[in-house]
Structures are given as C-alpha cells and as structure tokens.
Amino acid sequence: MLAFFLKRLIGAVPVLFAVSLFVFGFVRLLPGDPARLVAGADATEQEVASAREALGLDRPISEQYLRYAGATLRGDFGISSRTHEPVIEVIGARFLPTLWLTLAAMGWATLTGGLLGVWAGVKRGRWQDQAAMLAAIGGLSFPGFWLGLLLIDLFSVHLGWLPTGGFDGWRSLLMPSFTLGVGVAAVLARFTRSAFVDVAGEDYVRTARSKGLTERRVIWRHAARNALIPVVTLTGLEFGTLLGGAIVVETVFAWPGLGRLLVDSIAFRDYPVIQALILLLSAEFVLINLVVDLLYGVLNPAIRLRS
Amino acid sequence: MADPELLDVQDLSVSFPAGRGRTTVVRDLRLAVRPGETVALVGESGSGKSVASLAITRLLDYGPGRIDSGRILYRDNGGKVRDLAQEDAEAMRGLRGPEIAMVFQQPMSSLNPVMRIGDQIAEAIVQHRRLDRTAALAEARRLLERVRIPDAPRQLRAYPFEISGGMRQRAMIAIALASRPRLLIADEPTTALDVTVQAQVLRLLRELQRDLGTGLLFITHDMGVVAELADRVVVMRAGERLEEGTVGALFAAPSHPYTRSLLAAVPVLGSLNDEALPVPFPEPPAPTGPQDTVTAAPPVLEVRDLVTRFDIRGMLGGIRARVHAVEQVSLDIYPGETVALVGESGCGKSTLGRSIVRLEEPSSGRILFRGQDVLTVAPNTAADSASRRGIQYVFQDPFSALDPRLTVGFSVAEPIRTHGLLKGAAVMRRVEELLDLVGLPREFVSRYPHELSGGQCQRVGIARALASEPQLIIADEAVAALDVSIRAQIVNLLMGLQRKLGLACLFISHDMAVVERISHRVAVMYLGQLVEIGPRQAVLASPQHAYTRRLLSAVPVPDPSRRRDEVAIDDTEVPSPLRAPDDVPDVAPLIQVGPGHYVARHRVGGLY
Amino acid sequence: MTAPAIRSPAREFWRRFRRRHTALLAAALIVLIVLAAVFAPYIAPYDPAAADYDALLQPPSAAHLAGTDSYGRDILSRIIWGGRVSLAVGLISALAGGLIGTIMGLVSGWSGGWVDALLMRLCDVLFAFPGLLLAIAVVALLGPGVGNVIWAVAVFSVPVFARLVRGSTLVLKQAQYVQAARSIGVSRFKLILHHILPGALPAVIVYMSLRIGSAILVGAALSFIGLGAQPPSSEWGAMLADGRSYLGVADHLTLFPGLAIFVVVLCFNILGDGLRDALNQKLQ
Amino acid sequence: AGQITVGVGDNILGLDPTDLNDSVSLSATRLFFQGLYGFDRDLKLVPVLAESTEVNSDSTQYTVHLRRGVKFHDGTSFDAAAVKLNYDRLRDPANRLKRQSLLEAVDKVEVVDEFTIRLVLKAPSGVLLNYLAHTGASILSPKAIAQYGSEISRHPVGTGPFVFTSWTPDTLKAARNPQYWRQGLPRLDGVTIRSIPESGARLALLRSGEAQFVFPLPPETVQLIERDERLAIDKTPSIVVQYVALNTRKKPFDDPRVRQALNYAIDKTAFIKVVYNGFGIPMDAPVAPGIAFYSKQGVWPYDPAKAKQLLAEAGYPNGFETEIWNFSNTLNNRASQFLQQQLAVIGVKVAVNPLEAGVATTRLWGAKTPEEAEVRMFFGSWAPSTGDADWALRPLLSSRSYPPALYNLSYFKNDEVDAAIQKGLSTADPVQRKVAYDEVQKVVWQQAPWIFLSVNTLVAGRDKRLTGLTQQPDTALTYEEADLK
Ligand SMILES: Nc1ncnc2c1ncn2[C@@H]1O[C@H](COP(=O)(O)OP(=O)(O)OP(=O)(O)O)[C@@H](O)[C@H]1O
Ligand SMILES: Nc1ncnc2c1ncn2[C@@H]1O[C@H](COP(=O)(O)OP(=O)(O)OP(=O)(O)O)[C@@H](O)[C@H]1O
Ligand SMILES: [Mg+2]
Ligand SMILES: [Mg+2]
C-alpha cells in the first residue's frame, strides 16, 4: 500500500517536470508581451524596457528556463509580475477560498446528484424519473453566470438574506457553492442513474431482495454500491476541475479564487503565477487520480491494485 | 390432509415477453408443501422450475416475467393464509427471509461481487433476528462452518470471486438459512458440491426441518438426492406438472412415460463395475458399446509440476495469505481419452482447469499441448491460436461465462469466427447444428443469457466449446445443471465425438455415477494436490487413498428404499488450502500400486 | 419454422433502439434543428446581422417573434443562425473528444502496466492544464473563431472519457465472460470491441450527451470572460453572455437562447438515454 | 460619519502609486497618498501638499513651497527632504518604477530649505506641474520606504485622509486619519473598496445596500437604478476619447478622402445610443472638452451620401474590405460591431477582430517600424492621465510616437502637427501653448487620421445618502469630503 502510494508519488515527479517544461514553453508561445502589460497602457518605451529587465525577460530563453527550473526545485516560485507579491502568497491567499468553495459545492452536489440519480434510477421510466431528468438538464443548460445573477437578484437584492459576493463567512458561501454545484449535481445525477439502472437488473440485487432486506438497503448497500464505481471516477474528475477554480462563478460572486487568478494572470501574461498554478493543478490531479484508483480497489476488490 | 398446508400453489401461470407477444413458461402449475416436508421439484431443464420458484417469492416482479393467473396460498407464522400472488411489495418483503427464503441456481452472479461473504450473510441475520453486527458475524461464521466451508473465519472476509464454485453455493445456502425460514426454496443447491459436502448439506437441511419445521421445496436434477431427501416429488415438463407422488411410489411406479424415461436414465454408481472402459448411456441414438478410443499416440496434454497460488490481499494491496490452489500437479491426457477429475469442493479442480486454458497465471510448472509449451508461447502467434482453439473450457458457472450483452447465437459463433473456421451463412448453419446437438431450440440464437434457464445456459457453454472443434475439452461440472435425460444425451454426444474425432476430455465432476460412465481414468485431488490417479475401474473399485474412499462412501443412491438416515460423516475440521505466504506445503510423490494406478502416501491435513 | 439469424450486436442494438419512441422523437427533433441551422439562410426571417436602430430591445412581437437585441437585430434569426456554431461546437467536440478518449481508456485499462501509467499521466497533464487556458491560447494564436474553440473543448474532454472508460474496462476485464472469450482465443481487438466496449459504452453515451450541452456553454463562458465568438457570428452561448447585462431590463435577450440550449441539451439527453437503454439487453 | 463600501470593476494590484498604471489601483491609493499638486473635479490644477510654485522665465526651474504641519500616517513629518527622497526614488531607473517617466524632464531635485524644494529641468517644460499632480507622483513616507523596501506596495503610508487597515485580494479597507491636516476632514470613519468584476453583481451590490457607490456601471443597467428611489446615477464628463485609429500608411487609409468618408459614414449619436446607452457626447475636437487647451472643431456630420461620394472620388466606388481591431471586452466589441454595420452601408466591409489583452500587446506594439505594422483600423480610447493637451495629443499623433515608442497607431505624420506639439511642450506660457494646440487640433481634425467618435460620460451608481464623493474625469475618486447621512 505504502509502496504503491510512494511509487505513484515518485511517478508524479516526471509528470510535474514535464508539465513545468511544457507550461514554461507554452506561456512563452502565447502572443503577448508581459513587459508591455506590466508597464501599462500609456508607458513610454523606457518604462517598457525597464519592466522587461525587471522581469528577466531580456535574457536568453535557455537561461530563463534554467533559472526557473532551479528556483522551482528550491520551492521558489518567483514574484508575480502583476502584483509584485511572491507567487506563493498570491496563490496561497486564494487557495483557501477555492478549497472551501469546491468542498461545499462538491459536497452538496455529490449528495444531491447521487440521491437524485438513484431515485430516478429506482423510478426508471416513471414521472419521478422524468422530473429528475428535467431538473438535471435544467441544471446543465443554465450557464453559471445566469443562475448566479438570478440568485443574487433574488436573495441579495430583493430578499436581502445573503451577501452578493465576497469571501466572508458561511453565508457568503451559499450562493456560489450552489451555483457551482448545480452542473456537477446534474452530471452526477444523470450518471448515477445510468449506472444504477445497469446494476439494478443484476442477480445479486435479486438475492438481496430475497433476504427480505428493506428496499432502501437493497438500493444503497447492493445496487448503489456497485453503481458507484464509474461515478467515483467522474466525481474525482469534477472535483479536480473545480479545484482549478470556477472562473465564471468566482467572477459573478467576486470570489477570490484560483480560477479568476488564472484568468487574470493569463490576461496579464503573469508567467510565474501561471506556471506555479498549473504545477499546483497537476499535482492536485495526480493526487486525486491516485485516490480514485485506490477507491476503485476499495469498491471493487477484484481490481485491487498490485503494486 | 391433516396437516395445514404451508404452501399451496394453484393453477399458476407465468409468462415472459417474447417478440411482440408473450410466451407462457409455467402453465397451471399445482404444488403443495407442508411444514417439515420436503418436496422435490424435478423435470426437464428449462421446464420452468426456477421461474415457478421466483413466482412464489414474487422476485419475478423485478424482471420482465409476469404472473398471469393462479393463486399462491401461504400460511404465515401467525396462521393466516395469504395469497402471495396478490400481496403488495412491502408485505412480500416482510415475508421474504424469515418466512420464505431462497437459494438461487447461479451462485456466482447471485452474490454481490463487492461485498464480503460474511457481510452478505450477516445482513440477513441483522435484518431478521435483531442481532448486532458482531453477533451476526459470529452467527454467520457458525453457518459457514455448518455448511462445511473450510477456514470459515477467513472466508467470512473473502469476496465471491475468491472462493470456489461449491463454496459460493454453500454461501448462498448459508444466506438462506440465516433467517431461519419456514419455507425454503432451494434451486439446485448441491449441484456444485462434492458428494461428501453434499451429504453434509443435506443433513443440515434435515436438521433444520426437524428443528423449525421448515418446509423444503427442493429443485434438483440429482435423482440420488431426491431419493435420499424427498418426501414427495413433483415432475415438471414444458411448464406443466406431469405427475406427483410420494417418493417411494414415484420411484417404484412412475405413471408418466417421461418420468419413466427420466428414471431409466439415472446412472447408478457401480453399474459399470465389471466394465473397464466407459460405456455410453442406453439412450437414443443407439449406443455403440465400450469406448475403446484411447490410442497409443503421444498425449495431447502434459501437465508438469503445475503450481497455481492466489495471493490474498488486504484492502490496500498487501499480501496477507496465500491459497495453494494447485500444488505440483502432473497429469497426461491422451487423444480419445477422458480423465475425470474429482475431489472435494475447493480442492483446486477448477483452478487446474483454468490454469490449463491460461485463465489463471501458474506460478511454476509446464503445460504442453501437443508438445508445445503453452505458457511460453508469445500471444497472438499461430501456436497460441492453435492451443486456444484446441483446448476448450466449459465453465462451471455457465451464466457468468456468457457475455450478457451478446445473443446466444453470437456467443456460439464467436469461436468459429475467431478461428476463421467458416464464413457467412455457413456459420449460422453450424451454430444451429450445435444447438441441435445440445438439445436447444434453434430460435435460441437470438436469446440473451438472462433469458435462459440454468441448464440451457450450460448447454450453450458446451455448444460454444464444441464450436471450434477442439482436441481437448475441459468440462468443469459441465452437466451438473442438466436433467438426467439431457445429461445422458450430452455425455453420449461427447463420447460420440471422442469416437469420431479422438476428442480428449478432462471431466471435472462431483457426480460419481457420471464419472463412472464417461471416464477412462480418474484423478483425485485433495487440497491442491493429486492424491490418486488410475484406471477408472481400479480407482472406483479399490480406492487406495483414504480421501477417495471417503468420497465414494458419500455418494447418494437413487433409490428411496435404500435411504441412509445417518450417513457416516466425519465432522473433523475441514482442512484449508490457505497458508501463510511463506509456508509451502510438502508434496508427496505418487507411488504405483497397480497398473497405471498411483497414489500419494503421506499425511495431508489429517488424512494420511 | 426458420430460425432467426445471428444478428450482430450492432443490429441487435438498432432493433432495440427502434422501439424507443421518445428517443426517436428526440432524434427527429435534433435532425430538425440541425436542418434549420443548415438552411438558416432560407428559414431565418431576417438577416441575423441586420441592425435596426429604431427597434432596439423590442420585446417579442408579431414582427420579431423572439424580439430584438440591443442592436435591433432579430433574435429568432440569430438563434437559427447561431445553431450552426453552437451545434457544431457541441457535437464535434463531444464526439471527437469521446472517440479519442474512449480509445485511450480502452487501451489504457486493457493493457495496464506502463502503457496505462503513461496514458493516465498524460491525462493528468491534460487535466491540469485548465481547458480555459488552452481555449485562451487557441483564441490568442488562431483568433477568436468558435471553430478553434471546438478543438480546445474536444481536447479537454478526452481525459474525462479516457478515465471513465478505463474505469469500466478495469472492471469488465475481470468479468468471467471476458476471460472466457479470451480463453477461446478471441483477438484483442474483437475482445475489446465485442465484450469490453459495450459494457463501457453506457457511461460514454451518457457523458457524451451531457458534454454536448456543456460544450455549447463553453461558448457562453468564453464570451463571459471576454473571449467569445467572433462577432457578428451569433452563437447561443455568446448571446446569453451578452444579454446578461440586460437582465431585468430586457429578459428576452437571455430567455430565448437559453431556451434553445435547454431544448437541444434535453433532446440529446433523451437520445442518449434511449441509446443507453438500447444497449441494455435486459430492458425491453 | 459612517462607513462606506465602494464597488469597483477590477482588482487592486498594489498600493504604491509610483509603481502602478491601472486606474483602479491608482484611484485607491488616493485614500492614502497625496502629491504636491492635484486636480479638482474640473481637472483644474490645485496645490495640495504644495502651497505655491515659482517658475523661472525659460521654464527650466520650478521652486515649490511646501505646506507646513503635515504629518505622515506613521507620525513623521512631511518636508522638503521627504519630497526629494520620493522624487529621486521615482526618477532613478534602477528602481524600475512604472511611473518614472513622470519626472523624466527633471534633471535635479534640490532642497532649498526645510519646506522649499527646487526642481531643475533638462529642458524647458510647460507641463511639469501637471505631471506632479498625477497620482503617480504622490509622496510616500520616507520612513515607510526604508522600513518596508520592496514590500511597500502592501504598506501604504502617506499623508492622505485615510489610513490603511487591510488588503486581501478583493477587499481594501481604510480608516479615518485622525491627524489629517485639513480641519474637519475626512468625514467618513472608514472606506472599503471591493473588486466586483461582474457588472451585474456590482449593480446588485449597490441595490442590495452592500455598497454605496459603484463604478463603472454598464450603461444598459441605468434604468434599473433609476427605478430605485434610494439610488442615484452620477454622471461625470470624462476626458476619455473613443476613436478609430486609421493606419495612414496603408492603403486605402493613406488617402484623406477615404478617412473623411469614414468619418461621414458614422452616425455618432446612434453610436453613443447603441453602444453606451446615450452616455456620451460626440467628439468635436481631437481632445475631450475637459482637457486644457481643448479647441472645439464641431462634430463631423453624419452623411452617408457624402461618404460614398468621397470614396468614389478616392477610387473606391464599391468600397473596400478591411479589418478592425479592438481590446476585447463587451463594450468594445459592441462598438466595433456597430461600426461594422454602419460602414457596410457605404460598402466598406469590415472584419471585426477583438484582441485578447496579451495578444494586443504584440499585435499593436510589436512592430518595430511603421512598415511592419499590420494594424489597419483600431477602435480604442485614450485617457490622458495628466489632463493636459500634451499627453492627450503627443503620444497619439506625433511622428515620434510611432509604436513601440508610444501610441501613434495611425502612424500619422504631419510636419505642422509635429512642430506645434513640440512647441507646446517646450514652454510654460499658456498663451503660446494655446496657439500651438489650436493649430494641432485644427490640422488633425482636417486630416482625420481617426474616425472621431465620442467622449463618454462616466456613469456611476450612488446611494443617495452618500454625498461629497466626487469622481474626476480620469475616473479617480476623491474621498476627502465624502459623507454618509
Ligand atoms: N427472462 C426470460 N425471458 C424469456 N424467457 C425466459 C426468461 N427466463 C426464463 N425463460 C425461459 O423460461 C423457461 C423456464 O426457465 P426456468 O429457468 O424456470 O427453467 P428450469 O426449469 O429452472 O431449468 P433448469 O433446470 O435448466 O434450470 C426456459 O425455457 C427459459 O428459456
Ligand atoms: N481468485 C481467487 N483468489 C483467491 N482464492 C481463490 C481464487 N480462486 C480460487 N481461490 C481458492 O482456490 C481454492 C480452489 O478453488 P477452485 O475453484 O479451484 O476449487 P474447485 O475444486 O473447483 O471447487 P468446486 O468444486 O467448489 O468448484 C479455493 O480454496 C478457493 O477459495
Ligand atoms: Mg433453473
Ligand atoms: Mg470449481
């Protein structure tokens, strides 16, 4: 187990290295002159030049990479060219809000999505199934910003119950996490339903019924658990994606998260922040997929991992 | 009748959707079970026995089948008579378990693949007996011990895929018994069990009847078991009840011609005591006399020192223990020869067979097919393909060996197409021919596995194995789920092919009477090792190994007048092939005791 | 009596699908919408780009069934034209991503070992690389045409499909019947095609039908952060995003494109369900 | 008294005014910092930390008398030494401050006495005080500069009406400066600035009462505010001009008739109505009316027939095809689309190509020579942060301002204009400067290197209880006199 874990973690090192190299090249391939952006819209040529020097962009690209790689290995991610703060701090300040938002959104979305999906699966073909499906599709075809604005209009402007945005206590978390979770819940609901319908016809579900178990137990312990295996994959992936920040929701609710940071950093060609963010995201994904793989084994003993 | 009925099925009809209409598979069935009574339901494979039992428990509701008419009267614990055909789902749920329990025919797919055996048993206990989980698990362990599963504490924690076919079946029985039902419907509960365990399970059922007054509806093909166990017998064919009677009366004077032919086809162990070679059943087509098909040609299959072990892993992948399923087995099979492989449930028979077709990865040893080591050939080469075509495996659990998403026709045609034996419409003709051979209607080509009965599935498996015209068939309990007449037909079919094509066969079976009929030689396995091997006559008539002797003594006799009330069964701890990862068992060499007759002389697990 | 022929799994599937009337209806509706988009020039009542400064933000009326937008353009016509872009984005990206991802997942789950490790780490990288970043890059490098975005979206659905399919493959690989087929000597390709893929397909189909909707909405998200379709090509997502600041002032600007997306997503999901159910031999 | 919250559209990137160039951050620093000079709300130059200034006759030496009794937030006193330290810090290229060009003209900073300072220039300049009035030339506490070093942008210590409390990515908080040198001010106890990028959410912030002032406001939402009697719309004429630069080096824009035709082809009133919901006025000179030395030329009339005729004269009777770029955002894209539609009427087919911010830097400023430039039409705006005609005209229209040096995207070159711009820059005499800039504006208007579009009105939403919070034409907010009833 530990060996497996370590092996995967060590396996992640080349991945991260490849990512770092890739990202380094990628951001520089993007058209755009960071120095010009740093210097500002009405900067003079000298100001631009001095900004370029300050960013170290006047040096040969190989030297830039070596510096970057060396610093990264030491855990030094550099200074943001947009705010002049150390990248660690820039990201650090926004990691927690993103984490909260993600956890809250995933929390309710997996619960609701899973429940809704199983419910629809149980009532397959009946009106409850159809209603759940319509709700899910509604959730899917609602763009986040639209829903977000509607919620703000209702709960903040008209009812005055919740703050319009910002990262400030649990009340500020309600609307963003709801908005963010809707899509996930919808996807999970549809997906769980599908997996559930496949499993519900299996013989072992019949066996469970023959034991006289309550229908709830039959559904949850026997059918749902087997249906969970594909759902886990998706949940893991959605979780990872959300950890990368939900740009739209963060923007609507002025949530100081990583997604907006990424967009802003890209718009500003803030190389150090982009590089560090993507490295962080890769690490997250490696970790999440590791957990998903472990979960496979837990859920389905036949595919337990051989390290 | 003095006794109040427990179950009284009246004019039950059940149908399934078929094409645009429905087909009726159970028609006007009448059936009664009294408390403490054992009713055997026998009949042709596919005659509707399983469907009828599903209808009684109303588990049919969860599939496409419908009860069209009839009443299912049941007298519950409170003495109230209810018509189960009319009860609502919640009331039925309350009845299932403590009132009516069921053992399903297909134990593999009927166990939840991701739940531990112990939990699956304990669950029923918790639900109905109001015990907490620990107590329930302790009770589950007791149940496993009572169905003679070795190493019960560990098997509690095993998953279905980790245990042998017979163990699964016993786990199913344990689940059904867990709730102490008043009516137990057991659908072929002992087909995958070796005779010793079968005897013990039957005894367990009798005890249960005695203690709780449980009524038992017992579906089986084994007339020996019927004779041994049943009070009354109901014979079914094509969805209808043909006749019914007490076991004595029915065996003595069957009234319906079908019943008569059924009983005539029952093989009796010892009937070939004087015959050295296998002899086909006296069934049509006219038998051809003794099976003198073994030639002096080099063996088709040579197994040398084969070892297959399973690592038991914890939740997170660490090895906790090791199952020594096959330990240094060596075995030759010659063209035209049938070697029967017998032995206690869980002793490694299937694993040996599966290793030969490379479904398991042996840890060491060699397997030569026509001189070519199949373990070392590169995949996807001609040699590989030749061996995969030449050796065919008939799975012990036929249902899970068929792709549920493919039609029977496609599954049977698959080996033909894979090896490019035929093309176009010829494939179709060949598939039909194969279905004919195993006694299945041709329209089954468009059926799906879940639309078949247990015996029909098994025959599809056989047809599929025959499709690629193999030189060697490994038949793992291939006829266990078939009624005697079909079984005779299939055995004769195999023998016919042997005669015609020199087919060799490794015949894994618990049914000693069939073994006697079909095999040239018999190999006995015990705890993963081969303990005795020799000409059939020698092994069965003068068994040398203590285990072989015990095995033979437990074979039930298909004659109710010779019913043994208490079989001599030893209740010693069941030995287990499970060992610590570095504890390798010693294997004694086989010593010749007669012409071609070898036996291992050493102590293994309490025997010598 | 002549026995029925051995139908291939695909034919069997089609036979079952034909009986699912709602799914057929949804499919017909999709075809209709696609046709409307294709023949937009003949169907749309107005030129989608023609502005009428005397009729800004008109609510729905007989002349403009869905009203006009902030330039006085006919919203209905824009929706009909916009279908071209939106449907292309949704369909192409979901299909392409699904196809590649499925193949990757099958190979990965089936092979195991280093192939699996390599492919899955590749997925990790793709995942880590936020889709939006690539979309931005594509927009930056190739210009803000929606066509370019299609590929970005497609690429980023690959890892999801790959992991989903790999998950199913890992489970199915252990199935007794797959082993049985393997012991017969069925070639790897056929094994995967006939025994593994059909088992993994339901998940793929469901996810794909979901993905079509979210791909259409990617356009909205891009417009929202200012990287939308190239004007004046109308596109549902962009219409939604642009109309959002008129919420409360002129709601029909968002209502109708929103409705269009909803209907299309709904149809694809119903169709997806039909396909999925037709794959399940136990459902009649 | 009271606390207010102000909603703005972008993130605050730092709080060191000398190292900032985005208007949101600069505006925020005005809570804490002041310069020697400043602008009032009509963009008139007013002394702040200075009391008066004497300029020598050839405009090369500025002697500034400083205000006495002013203290920084950290308790240290404001004096000439502090000013010298600040100015030298800003000028020193080694510090790489983004605002270093503000003091480009200065050769030396001399302390005359404790409260007098002299700025010696490299060449005569008439606009130095405008530069000193720029927020970027604010005075920071020397103690804080020494103490915080490179962290100074997170620790603003100045002389302004508010003291820094906290700053998280989206929220800046400031509290009343009790020792503020202006008696009785500020009136508010505290100010919070929140960044709300989505305009709908920003609007909601105001409507839900969480904020008392939001800027900018999408013009189309004004209606919603007007419906709410607690709220008011604040309109401020801006100095931001919206125009389309036409690359005068490229065919067909090298022909003045074509450029004029394009000016005739656009209905400016409709443009303002459609794109900005009516908030703006048509441009009637190359600079906005708020700029010093603005010289009104009259609006280019909307006359498509005339436009067609001019095109025909120039040899394009059937129009031509070209491309328009802009910085991609909702309003800019909307504007470009509008232009596209209007030009289509006279047969000019325009492809709209919105540029992502980063891409724009290479596409627009990447060309080293006019020949390399790919730009044809560029829709953009210019906000001359010094409020002076020089910075409003020179960077855009002088032939020395071709990219990458400055921003002359129309690659406009006119000798008269060049000479006049130079003349205006090199004297402090208002009369001479007026003559020069009148000339520039007249010629530019005739030559039409741009399509002259509009001067927008800044639209902000305000809670009616909030008074005294003024917005300047360059979008900066002045909090000093704000009060909440
Ligand atoms: N889901 C189904 N759809 C259609 N036909 C079915 C279905 N299930 C069973 N049948 C058919 O009903 C008949 C009765 O099946 P059943 O399983 O009861 O047979 P059985 O008597 O138990 O046979 P066996 O001894 O082989 O298990 C068979 O012919 C079978 O093909
Ligand atoms: N995948 C596995 N993992 C762990 N243990 C296994 C696995 N497969 C089989 N075993 C164990 O190996 C032993 C031999 O099993 P096998 O299936 O060969 O028995 P068998 O002789 O065929 O029994 P039966 O007659 O009951 O079918 C059993 O103890 C079983 O529990
Ligand atoms: Mg059956
Ligand atoms: Mg077995």
From TrEMBL, chain A:
Family note: Belongs to the binding-protein-dependent transport system permease family.
Topological type in the membrane: Multi-pass membrane protein
Transmembrane segment boundaries: 9-30, 99-122, 134-161, 173-191, 227-253, 273-299
Main subcellular location of this protein, as a coarse class: membrane
Chain segments annotated as coiled-coil in the UniProt record: none
Species of the source: Bosea caraganae
Subcellular location(s) per record: Cell membrane
Listed SUPFAM superfamilies: MetI-like (SSF161098)
BP-aspect Gene Ontology terms: transmembrane transport
Alphabetical UniProt keywords: Cell membrane, Membrane, Transmembrane, Transmembrane helix, Transport
Domain ABC transmembrane type-1 positions: 95-292
Full protein name: Glutathione transport system permease protein GsiC
Role noted for this protein: Part of the ABC transporter complex GsiABCD involved in glutathione import. Probably responsible for the translocation of the substrate across the membrane.
One Gene Ontology CC term in the entry: plasma membrane
TrEMBL record, chain B:
Membrane topology label: Peripheral membrane protein
Organism, as annotated: Bosea caraganae
Localization, UniProt: Cell inner membrane
Keywords annotated in UniProt: ATP-binding, Cell membrane, Membrane, Nucleotide-binding, Transport
Protein name (record): ABC transporter ATP-binding protein
Family statement drawn from the similarity comment of this UniProt entry: Belongs to the ABC transporter superfamily.
GO CC annotations, alphabetized: plasma membrane
A family per Pfam: ABC_tran
InterPro entries cross-referenced by the UniProt entry: AAA+_ATPase (IPR003593), ABC_Ni/Peptide_Import (IPR050388), ABC_transporter-like_ATP-bd (IPR003439), ABC_transporter-like_CS (IPR017871), Oligopep_ABC_C (IPR013563), P-loop_NTPase (IPR027417)
PANTHER family, per database record: DIPEPTIDE TRANSPORT ATP-BINDING PROTEIN DPPD (PTHR43297:SF2), OLIGOPEPTIDE TRANSPORT ATP-BINDING PROTEIN APPD (PTHR43297)
GO molecular function terms attached to this record: ATP binding; ATP hydrolysis activity
Main localization of the protein described in the UniProt heading: membrane
Lineage: Bacteria, Pseudomonadati, Pseudomonadota, Alphaproteobacteria, Hyphomicrobiales
UniProtKB/TrEMBL annotation, chain C:
Transmembrane domains' residue ranges: 21-44, 87-110, 122-143, 149-165, 249-272
Keywords noted in UniProt: Cell membrane, Membrane, Transmembrane, Transmembrane helix, Transport
InterPro entries cross-referenced by the UniProt entry: BP-dependent_transpt_permease, MetI-like, MetI-like_sf, OppC_N
Pfam family of the protein (one): OppC_N
Localization: Cell membrane
PROSITE patterns: ABC_TM1 (PS50928)
Residues in ABC transmembrane type-1 domain copies: 83-272
A GO cellular component entry from the record: plasma membrane
GO MF, one example: dipeptide transmembrane transporter activity
Bilayer topology: Multi-pass membrane protein
Family: Belongs to the binding-protein-dependent transport system permease family.
Biological role: Part of the ABC transporter complex GsiABCD involved in glutathione import. Probably responsible for the translocation of the substrate across the membrane.
Protein known as: Glutathione transport system permease protein GsiD
Organism field: Bosea caraganae
